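Teaching assistant here, posting this on the class forum so everyone can see the example we discussed in section. The complex has two components, and the goal was to see what a joint structure prediction looks like when all of them are supplied at once.
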Amino acid sequence: MRVEQISIFLENKAGRLAEVTAILRDANVNIRALSLADTTDFGILRLIVNDNNAAEQALKKEGFTVGKTNVLAIEVADVPGGLNNVLDPLTSAGINVEYMYAFANTKGQNAIMIFRFHDLDKAISILKDNGIKVIKGEDVYNL
Amino acid sequence: MPIYNMDFETMPREALESIQFSRLKATLERVYATVPFYRENFNKAGITPSDICSLKDLHKVPFTVKKDLRDNYPYGMFAVPMENVVRIHASSGTTGKPTVVGYTKRDIETWAELMARSLAAGGATSKDIVHNAYGYGLFTGGLGVHYGAEKLGASVIPVSGGNTKRQIIIMKDFKPTILTGTPSYILHLAEVAEEMGVSFEELNFKSGIFGAEPWSEDMRRDLEAKLHLKAMDIYGLSEVMGPGVSIECREAQKGLHIFEDHFIAEIINPQTGEVLPYGETGELVFTSITKEAFPVIRYRTRDITSLNPEPCICGRTHVRMHKVSGRTDDMLIIRGVNVFPSQIESVLMKSRDVQPHYQLVVDRVDNLDTLTVMVEVGQEFFSDEIKTLQNMEKKLSNDIKEYLGVSAKIKLVEPKTIQRSEGKAVRVIDKRK
C-alpha cells in the first residue's frame, strides 16, 4: 500500500532545483509527482519517481542529502467534496496530515494525492473501512 | 605502553627541576650573548642572566611575542651562524609575514627524540606502520612526525596531505596501524572513505595522533567512533619546535604531557602577564631550554589552557596541559561575550546527528554583532519534514545560547558546502574586520 518517496535537502540558491532535475534526466529517471516545501534558507524537495534506486544513487553521487519516506497515494474523487470525504474520517480518528500534494494523472477519472502521515498503518485501515482507494506503490511508479 | 625514554620521562620532579634550571641558565646566557633582540629586551627590563638564581626567577624575564619574531624576519632570532643551521621551517604567514625557524643538527635529533616519545605515548612501537597525513613542507607537521617515526623504528608512509582517494587505497593496501594528521583533514579522509565504500572497521588502525589545531573532547568521541581507533591529541608549534612539545598518553587520554626536560611551561593571565598557579586557565608560555638554533624565551603561544601537576597513571612525571580550548587570537567577542570556536564545536558535537564540519560567520548588522553557525545536513540529520529540521535549528541555537550566553542563528547547508581543508580548518569567517 505504501509508496516510497525520496526527499532532497536544498539550499535556497538559484539554479539548485535545475541541477536536481538535470541529474534525474541524465539518470533516465521520470518524475511522477513532486512538491517543494521551503523556508527562507532551505527547502525540501519531495519526489515520487519511476525508479527510486537510480534516483537516489545518482543524487547521492552528486553530494545531495537524500531521504526516503513512505507515503500513501490516495484516489480522490474529482467532484466537489472529494478531498473532504478522504479527510473527514481521518480527522475524526485524530490522524494528522503532515503534508500532502497532488499527482499528475492523465489516465484515470479520479485525482490522486500523496499523503504523509506519521501513523501509516492506522491511516490505511481507516481509509479501507471508509472504502477509499489507496493505490499500490508499483502502480504509482508506473502510472 | 612502553615509555620511550624512561629515565627522562619518569624522572622525579626534584631532579627534573634541577636539570631544568641548569639548562635554562645556559640558554639565557647563550641568547644574551648571541641574539641582539634578547640582549636588548633583557637590558630594557634591567636584568642579566646572572639575576636568574632559581626557576622561580623566570618571571623576571620579559616575554617574547609573535611580533618580535616577525620584526626579526627572517633570521634575526637565530642563535647560531647559518652554517650550523641544517633545516628551516616557516609558519603559513596568513596574517602577515611568516615566522621563520631554524634547527641545528642536534635540534633535529632532539625533535626526533621528542616525536618518538610522543608516538610511543600514543601507542606506537617499532612494529607499527605510520600513515602520516600531515603536510610535508615548510609546515612542521609532516617532517616532525616523519623523523620521530623513523627514530622509533616504525615504518612511515610519508603520504602528506591531499590526494585523498589515493590515501584511502594506501590505507587499505599498506595496512598502516597509526594515523597522524590534523583532525579536520582526518575527518575529510573518513568522509571520502565512506563515499568510496571503505569502512575504517576493516582497516588496521589502533591509534590516531591528531593535532596542529584545537579539537574538543566531543570531537574525540566522534573521531574514535568513526575511525575505530583511540585518538590522542598532540601539541606543538613551530616557534617552540613543532609537533612533539606535548602529547596525551594512550593510558589516560587526559591532558598532554609536556616534555619538561626540554621546555619550561608557564600559564599567565593574558591581560596582566602575571604567572598563574597550577590548575588556573590562562595563556600558555614556553621557554625552550635545549634548542640551539632558535631558542625561545617566555614565548607567548596565545593558546589557552591550564597545567595539571598530578601524577599520571602512565608513570610519566611531566606536567600535563589540558587540551587547548582556544587561542587568545581565536577568541571572538560577540556582543561582549567571549566565544571560542571550540566551545561551539562542543555544543554541535553533543548532538549526535550533526556533521563535524561547521563554520562560524560573524558579521555586524546595524551595529549589532551577529553569529551564524553553518551546519551541514547529512543523511542522519535529514528529515522530509520542514518542522523537524527547524526544530533541530532551534535546539542547536538554544543549546548555544544556554552554554555560551550568545545568540546564534543556525544555517543548514548542503553537505560538502563547507570547504574541506588539507591542513588546518578555517572555522571562522569574521566579516566585521
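For the discussion questions: DSSP finds eleven helices and 21 strands in chain B. Chain B touches chain A at residues 377-379, 381-386, 389-390, 411-417 (CB under 8 Å). Think about how each of these relates to the inputs above.
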